[in-house]
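WARN no homologs supplied; continuing
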Amino acid sequence: MSPSERSRDGSPARFRTLQPWLVETFGHEVHRVALDAGSNCPNRDGTKGRGGCVYCDVEGSGTGAFKRGEELALQLADGLARIARRGVGVKAIAYFQSYSNTYVPLERLDEVLRVTLPHLGKEIVALSIATRPDTLSDDALARLAEWNVRVPVWLELGLEVADDRLLTEINRLHTVAEFEDAVRRARAHGLLTVGHAILGLPGDGRDGARRTAAVLARSRVDGVKVHHLMVLRRTILEHWWREGRVEPLTVETYVDWLADFVERLTAAQVLHRITADAPDEQLLAPKWNVHKNTVRERLERELERRGSRQGAFAAE
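OK structure emitted
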């Protein structure tokens, strides 16, 4: 835990969050610019399956900009302009978010990354590449390692749940072992890694939240993104929810499980996200009407109530 991180009351923070780490690392405020490069996934195009992950909408959990005809360079320019309005000296991370961004020919990966070249080391201080652990070739890793010489490259890898049976049931169609292998290979290439998790998936539960955190800790990902299960329109999960097969978490239960989860990460891992939201017109459930800062405050209070903190139950 960084000694500079503090809770709102000035006491040492009980979990490690992203913005203090970014300021400490880069020396100034940093924000993401979400980009949609028009990639795809093997569980959508028929290589492994169809329909995508049950919770994933048709935009691939991204902006949908590419399908709307927005060129990548324009997306980046618009995003950098928004970042610039935050103030002098604020920098950006180019975040290739939608779908699986290494699930493309190497030439396309080069083409996508070259869009950032005019801005590297200037407005852009890092690249973040979202992908699946089973679409990460050695060639792609080698290419990302070359870019890592210019600016830090983060590889964001979805685990979501540490249970192979559930990974099949939710149509992710990769394994926990594939996730751990992808992290190991990415780290061997010098890339920072960020693991994704979802709490409250059907058939998982509190023990599942603890198990997923333990796998993320064991894998030694540098960062972790975690959020509660959300039921979005135009997803397979919407149908399950309407059939009564899905019971979304209450905010109270989520914070309770989230505290369990955070206790089982290592103290060094940076929490890039501890909740998520979606536009009202897309979100079906749960309807918390709670700001993400409130979730953070409740987590801090729950860990304080327990006399606990991030890493308290991490395996040696």
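The chain has one domain: 18-306.
OK
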